[in-house]
Structures
1.
Amino acid sequence: QAVERSVSPKLSRHSSAISLDSRLFARIEAIQARRDVLAAEEGCSAEDLRLLDRVYKGFVRGGARLVGADRTRLAEIDARLSELGTGFSQNILADERGFVLALGEGDLVGLPGDLRSAMAEAARERGLASDGAKPYALTLSRSIVVPFLTFSDRRDLRESAFRAWIARGENDGPTDNRAVLAEILALRAEKAKLLGYASFAAYKLDDAMAKTPGAVRDLLEQVWVRARERAVADAIALSGLAVAEGGNGPLEPWDWRYFAEKRRKAEFDFDDAEVKPYFELDRMIEAAFDVASRLFGLSFERLAEREAWHPDVRVWRVRNADGAEIATFLGDYFARQSKRSGAWMSALARQHKLDGGQLPVIYNVMNFAKPAAGKPALLSIDDARTLFHEFGHALHGMLSNVTWPSLSGTSVARDFVELPSQLYEHWLTVPEVLDRHARHVVTGEPLPEALLAKMKAARDVNAGFETVEYTASALVDLMLHEASEAPADPLAREAEILAGLDMPREIVMRHRAPHFAHIFSGDGYSAGYYSYLWSEVLDADAFEAFTETGDAFDKTTGEKLLRHVYSAGDSADPAELYTAFRGRMPTTEALLRKRGFAA
């Protein structure tokens, strides 16, 4: 962490030195001025011209047109933002690692066996199980805290866990992020003003598929209205269930997941724990690979002898339909004390065709609960969906087929980058995929049709809650960055925004500002958290291209998807790529149907 704190601002200053190099920009500007000649007379391809446009715009957005003190100030801002983002992330990790609640057997009432095993493993990792009195650890790893909130009968412990979870980055002392995020917002607003934009949101979205804050707000507010209506109705139902079970107080945020699970069991006779034995980690990896094989002709060869950064990491060689090696893929699936929470994809090497070319080296990181020795790793349906999601990102990197590295793989607009990942999630629940891979870990029997039907029926029972907690975060992100002047007190502004939305009191936004790593640990999703929903509009519409054919693995549609999405990188504008695949731009109807909000 000390190295990261030291190196991050140095890398930022190095990047600024390039983007603010006046001689280099003069060369690029001269080439940009000859763009039409390059296209008409010198044989530059559409991808070459796309690269030129992206490089030119990148330099302009990086401050190349600034002069004097403004240039110096921009470099200072970027270096400081890099330093602050690193500190923000490390503060969250410190709070997550710093919280642990040692529990005994009597504290685990209601918890399923796999969660108990994960908590026992967490206790062993932390040296808490040596005396045997309290051999379980409640930690703030998402793979532990969320199921604990869902299943624990101990309301007092649910409250303790929830309060610790939402207080990350807001605990006073050296890990408190409130001053950090206030400075980040102020510097971002100053940066946008230097570059000639009305707000940081306007600056970020100018380079996105959405283009303007207004377009983002329109989408979020359209979904918010439907989602809030559902959540309010659900809160009434859950409150009634709580009273029926002897509750004597109002429904609180730490009660929602617990009673939503009880409601799901009561109304749909569905228990998420029932399906876990059918979603064993190795089988789900095989399922993700199988879908890639059927859609794109890929094959995966495990390289058991290949070492990586931890013994848990697995390595595969990836080949295309012709048998040619196209990528190396690594999977790091289990939570560790030293890992930050969440799930992500990244690249050790990006694909390109320059100087003999480069095959991509892509990795996925998850934080699934590691089972006890000799036990299988069982996933919830949400965990399995996460695995498919991140593997969709990985395929975007591995299938890339472009010339220029800066246009490769996931180097696309932030609100387009989630399309390949979110789209890939759809294949998890395709019946033939489940029949082939969702097999009971002990008996080998396929997931029963009756249980599958219950799972699908119960899928939308918590859609209001999930959409409200996400959309609230996206709207807060947008509005914090939409102001021309940064708020002096970001948490007061957060509260004001939520009050204006009439946020249901029983729900807390998914990421409160002090631990909103997506938007404050770096620049990636700042003013861009909406991207998941924007991409969901795309993915819902895109999957219907397959369902309209009656075949989830339709060959022609799969070939178009590969050519215009998964292999295309940033070789064309996202709207052009999507239209080339689908024949038109998407509409929101498929999204509303998918979320169960259709009128």
2.
Amino acid sequence: MARIRLLTYNIAHARGLGLHQTLRTRTRIRHQLLRIAHLIHRLDADVVALQEIDENSLWNGSFDHLAYLRDHTGLPHAVHGVNNRLAGRIHLNYGNAVLSRYPIVHQQNVSFGKRLLGEKGMLFTEVETPAGRLPLVNVHMHHSSRLSRLRQAQHLMTFLDEQRAARAAHWAAGPIVCGDLNNPSHTPDATAMLLGYFEQFDNYTLIPKGLGGRAQHTFPSFFPRRALDYVYLPSDCQRIEVTVVRSYLSDHRPVLVEFHL
């Protein structure tokens, strides 16, 4: 069995706890990304699912944040899933991303809609770990509309059905889904809908809620009152350990999951 450490983290465009990234200079953005890189390195993550990360955006420095993190974490494999593209003088390009110690052998990005700004989506990757090929979906859902989240969850389920039919023969485990679901922890929403879907196939664990019975809050990071950030793990993942990391580098706290496959 191989030990794998998975981190899911909404890094909030590297603005820290500030109101908006436009209020940060390029130098401060770089410094914030360096602190995030140091945190990822300290946590010894093998695979990192990032949300709200910029490829090249005017509002926070006009440089590739994923490339910067790749160079400063020592994780050599990286893919970007851009869901928002605005060209021209006021250029904005951002979405989700995956950083990995192991090769990413397949990738597919899916946007949930066609808005130029504020669009959410999911990044599907297959990571070639020492235990075999691991399918991973990094997802970011709508922040305010329950109906939108339910539609996005249905989109995700349909997508996974297609991937199972086409690619499951290559997988060493069932798909892992993680990210910022933006689901209030006190209401049945996309989180419960997805868990019901996964349990048709396997005995999935919803983290950080599943192990201790109650959800561990992840937002806002300074005084967490809501659980927004989750990981769905199939039963192939054994000896699970979970940490909601106390960190104030974003308005979300990162969730670290260690398991053996």
